[in-house]
Amino acid sequence: MRSICSIKFLFLCVLYGAVSQIVIVRQGVISGKTEISAKGRHYMSFEGIPYSTPPIGKNRFMEVNDLQPWVGVWNATRTSSSCMQYEPFSNAVIGFLSTGDRVVPGNAGLKDQYHAMLWVKDNIKMFGANIFSRSLFSSGSALSSWSYQQDPDFQSDSTFLPELNDNWENLASSLYQCSLPLEKRRQVTARIKEYYFNNQSIGQETYPQLVQSLGDRLFYSNIGKFLKMAASRSDLPIYAFRYSFRGEKSLSNMIGLNNNDYGVSHSDDLFRVFVLPHFELNRADDLAMIDLLINIIYSFATDGLNSTNGRLTKSTKLLKTVESNSRKKNEIDFEWLPVDKDSEELNLLEISAPNNLKMMSNNIRINKVITR
Ligand SMILES: *[C@@H]1O[C@H](CO)[C@@H](O)[C@H](O)[C@H]1NC(C)=O
Ligand SMILES: *[C@@H]1O[C@H](CO)[C@@H](O)[C@H](O)[C@H]1NC(C)=O
Ligand SMILES: *[C@@H]1O[C@H](CO)[C@@H](O)[C@H](O)[C@H]1NC(C)=O
Fold first, then answer.
1. What is the pLDDT of residues 178-231, one digit of tens each?
2. 131-162 tens-digit pLDDT
3. In the record, which residues are listed under signal peptide (predicted)?
């Protein structure tokens, strides 16, 4: 049996296979419920299980610590309110706030995620899972310590772009999160303007460049750094993918409260794996994409990749799905290359359609622009 836990939804663990509704974990008894997936499969769901002490009161900024056992049965059929307050905590700014001393030691968000992983390690066998074969998958902020909320309203707000243009040096240094000494701001923001905008004004015509540059800075830069750091500290190969399939709906429409096509947004892949209220998808290509993403995660967790040559083995369910989604067989004949810690290019598996997967590499441009 395999388990998949989402770090973004730390309190949600979905376990496949025959698991009892009552499970005894280290701190006590929990009770979950049976749910039915979009494709009609039954699974047990346990939500809102506490895994560490909430960071409230005197623990507000401190590293979360040991959890006390409870008496009776913990109702794990709903996300508990303490977890609800908790989740924004770890992902939002406070999760990464530090005063550089013992008052706010910092990195509480990461330490919190670490506690969640320890909890899984300690308890997963009680759910019947193989403790030597866990797959953890996570999305977005959990990886990149990203706290900035992408706001598509920028484009429709008639004052934002002109203000940004007129006040570029000041606004750009906070928008791009350049924590720079004042004297360097002019130089760096001018470099961004030259590199991405070719010195043109910021406005409706250069909006795509603005989106590209913010995407590079707020995602690729940190995700790229993180992946290379992980690759250089681990013997295991690290594989990354880039999801670029728009589909019928995107998170950007939920944030922007409209149906504009802003392209693909942060978490659009996640919301094709986990069902989000008001995000039901029925279009044929979306349904095929849901299948593909679930198969990628499943086959990665069960069969893994053939690490001898980095090639997806022919036996994997992933390959079968891609083959059946693809008219041209040669589209699947590629190697999923691991992250190369010594390269300036970041290797990514590009998932751009249910029948189109290929390797690409992304030059982490903004790092050069900002840290030259
Ligand atoms: C658990 O919580 C759910 C949702 O609030 C509720 O419907 C259910 O009755 C609770 N179960 C127990 C045993 O308290
Ligand atoms: C862009 O503007 C800067 C001054 O702000 C100038 O040094 C640079 O040469 C310009 N680059 C281009 C391509 O025009
Ligand atoms: C992995 O690839 C190597 C080289 O192509 C091959 O010899 C080996 O049998 C493969 N292993 C699996 C498990 O497919």
1. 777 888 888 889 999 999 999 999 988 898 888 888 888 877 787 888 888 888
2. 666 666 666 544 433 333 334 455 566 688 89
3. 1-20
| Ligand 3 geometric centre to CA of 296 (Å) | 19
Kindly report the three-state secondary structure assignment for every residue of the chain: CCEEEECCCCCEEEEECCCCCEEEECCEEEECEEEECCCCCEEEEEECCCCCCCCCHHHCCCCCCCCCCCCCEEECECCCHHHHHHHHHHHCHHHHCCCCCCCCCCCHHHHHHHHHHHHHHHHHHHHCCCCCCCEEECCCHHHHCCCCCCCCHHHHCCCHHHHHHHCHHHHHHHHCCCCCCHHHHHHHHHHHHHHHHCCCCCCHHHHHHHHHHHHHHHHHHHHHHHHHHHHHHCCCCCCCEEECCCCCCCHHHHHHCCCCCCCCCCCCCHHHCCCCCCCCCCCHHHHHHHHHHHHHHHHHHHCCCECCCCECCCCCHHHHHHHHHCCCHHHHCCECCCCCCCCCEEEEEEEEECCEEEEEEEECHHHHHHHC
Q: Is 0.70 surpassed by the pTM of this model?
A: no
Residue 317 lies in a domain: yes
Q: Minimum-distance ligand to the CA of 314?
A: 3
Q: Which of 127, 160, 178 is the last residue of a domain?
A: 127
Ligand 2 centre and the CA of 194: distance in Å?
A: 6
**Domain coverage including residue 82:** 21-127
In this structure, the answer to whether residues 351 and 311 fall within a common structural domain is yes
Provide the domain count of the chain: 2
Question: Which of 194, 196, 200, 206 has most ligand 2 atoms within 8 Å of CB, for mutation?
Answer: 194
